[in-house]
From TrEMBL:
The entry's keywords: Oxidoreductase
Ranges where the Glutamate/phenylalanine/leucine/valine/L-tryptophan dehydrogenase C-terminal domain occurs: 195-426
Identification of the protein by name: Glutamate dehydrogenase
InterPro entries the UniProt entry points to: Aminoacid_DH-like_N_sf, Glu/Leu/Phe/Val/Trp_DH, Glu/Leu/Phe/Val/Trp_DH_C, Glu/Leu/Phe/Val/Trp_DH_dimer, Glu/Leu/Phe/Val_DH_AS, Glu_DH, NAD(P)-bd_dom_sf, NAD_bind_Glu_DH
Keyword Oxidoreductase appears in the UniProt entry: yes
One Pfam family recorded for the sequence: ELFV_dehydrog
SUPFAM superfamilies in the record: Aminoacid dehydrogenase-like, N-terminal domain (SSF53223), NAD(P)-binding Rossmann-fold domains (SSF51735)
Gene3D superfamilies membership: Leucine Dehydrogenase, chain A, domain 1, NAD(P)-binding Rossmann-like Domain
Family according to the record: Belongs to the Glu/Leu/Phe/Val dehydrogenases family.
Length: 428
């Protein structure tokens, strides 16, 4: 059988911002504030390891294609590395490196015993059949069998993946090791040892941090409006839970475009529409279609970017009207926009704090798998909310202490924890 593609050249980053550079520039500011020593700085600035694999997959038409996949383990000083797997055509090694480092900082901010990692495969899952995606997922798992492990590196869902892919990953890993290992991956279906509350956990954390920030800013949720970019797992749950808190969701968007309703979008209807239409809002009649770029600069009080990186840049930051940005996505704000947003006095709850509800409940899932015991949904929600609220208050206090933005404060909290751990553990 002919091999049609041997190597997929990663999409160049020349025409877009580089998330790794954005991550590093904030890391440098926080390292300076902390007076981080050179040894620890040098260890943290680069990932522990980067694995690149080529995964041959027999497509439904009999052709064999080869997909390029990555796993980057940024750091494991706090514990086994943790982080999602992304299926998208824009996956790039530098992006995965940034996402892996963000996982280290995120786990440190919420004080859970994990390091950071991230994976990705350059593919377009929207054009692949379930069988093709399954073979790809199993091939990736096999290629990473020496990387993954319940005490080593624990994947989870990210863009383009969900419980279905995590189930295949768990099954393939279990077969290669000869024992059922639910704790090797989180975000699994409930029946395979998934946790109650994990599906909505990231969106719930976005809601919790948005409400905490609104309280600080003296904003009344019932008198406030919000726009949410991205209507997948994170965006749709954030929109639903924010609307349940009384905010009027005036705008939402996904890859098909942006949708606006001045009187508020009925989010349950939008979710039902999306679920019935291949995960997309295209054709949704509960709102008027608008220019996708307009959504981020629309007249709302709160903005929740919950799709991809670098959508807020020096080119549109000045036009943002929201008083509060809560980052559901990883890296939605390029570093070039930071000073503009700061000068406009917009509060930003940064990604490594705002979207940490997902990994927090993943941690709970892993704990439950290891205990062989299931927690109630209320216990999951109550514990996750407590962790997120405590982290928010710690970051807020750090921002006040050093007179810096919430983003820099979150990096300070995270890097300080990692650096202290190095100090006690030693080893270099
Ligand atoms: N799933 C999770 O638990 C977590 C996800 N995140 C981050 O949240 C973001 C979204 O992830 P998920 O919701 O899981 O992905 P998903 O695959 O469920 O949904 C992505 C959504 O974004 C939309 N989208 C893609 N490109 C877009 C664009 N250029 N403009 C507007 N919409 C666009 C898609 O149509 C879809 O609605 C990513 O940055 C991810 O890294 C962060 C923490 C945890
Ligand atoms: O749930 C997890 O373990 C990680 C989720 C993730 O990839 C993220 O927080 O960006």
């Amino acid at each position: 059988m002919a091999v049609s593609t041997v190597y997929k050249e990663p999409a160049p980053l020349v025409d877009r911002e580089n998330p790794l550079e954005s991550m590093m520039s904030r890391f440098n500011v926080a390292a300076e504030i902390l007076g981080l020593d050179d040894e620890t700085y040098n260890v943290l600035k680069a990932p522990d390891k980067q694995i690149i694999v080529n995964i041959p997959v027999t497509m439904d038409n009999g052709q064999r294609r080869v997909f390029e996949g990555y796993r980057v383990v940024h750091n494991t000083i706090l514990g086994p590395s943790k982080g999602g797997i992304r299926y998208d055509m824009h996956v790039h090694l530098d992006e995965v490196k940034a996402l892996a480092a963000w996982m280290t900082w995120k786990c440190a901010v919420v004080d859970i015993p994990y390091g950071g990692a991230k994976g990705g495969i350059i593919c377009d899952p929207t054009t692949m059949s379930p069988g093709e995606i399954e073979r790809l997922t199993r091939g990736y798992t096999l290629a990473m069998k020496d990387v993954f492990g319940p005490d080593r590196d624990i994947p989870a869902p990210d863009m383009g993946t969900g419980p279905r892919e995590m189930a295949w990953l768990m099954d393939e890993f279990s077969k290669t090791t000869g024992m059922t290992s639910p704790a090797v991956v989180t975000g699994k279906p409930l029946v395979l040892g998934g946790s109650l509350g994990r599906v909505e956990a990231t969106g719930r954390g976005v809601m919790v941090s948005a409400i905490a920030a609104m309280k600080k800013l003296g904003m009344d949720p019932k008198q406030s409006s919000v726009a949410v970019q991205g209507f997948g797992n994170v965006g749709s749950w954030a929109a639903k839970l924010l609307s349940e808190k009384g905010l009027k969701v005036k705008g939402v968007s996904d890859i098909s475009g942006a949708y606006w309703n001045e009187n508020g979008i009925n989010i349950d209807e939008a979710i039902a529409y999306k679920n019935a239409h291949n995960g997309r809002l295209d054709g949704f009649t509960g709102a008027v279609k608008m220019d996708a770029d307009e959504l981020l600069i629309s007249p709302v009080d709160v903005l929740v970017p919950a799709a991809v990186e670098d959508v807020i840049t020096e080119h549109n930051a000045n036009d943002i009207k929201a008083k509060l940005i809560v980052e559901g996505a990883n890296g939605p704000t390029a570093a070039s926009a930071d000073p503009i947003i700061r000068d406009k006095k917009i509060m930003v709850v940064p990604d490594i704090l705002a979207n940490s509800g997902g990994v927090t409940v993943s941690y709970f899932e892993w704990v439950q798998n290891r205990l062989g015991y299931k927690w109630s949904e209320n216990m999951v929600i109550e514990r996750a909310e407590r962790i997120m609220t405590d982290a928010f208050e710690k970051v807020y206090a750090t921002a006040e202490k050093y007179n810096v933005t919430m983003r820099i404060a979150a990096y300070v909290v995270a890097i300080d924890k990692v650096a202290q751990t190095y100090k006690y553990r030693g080893g270099f």
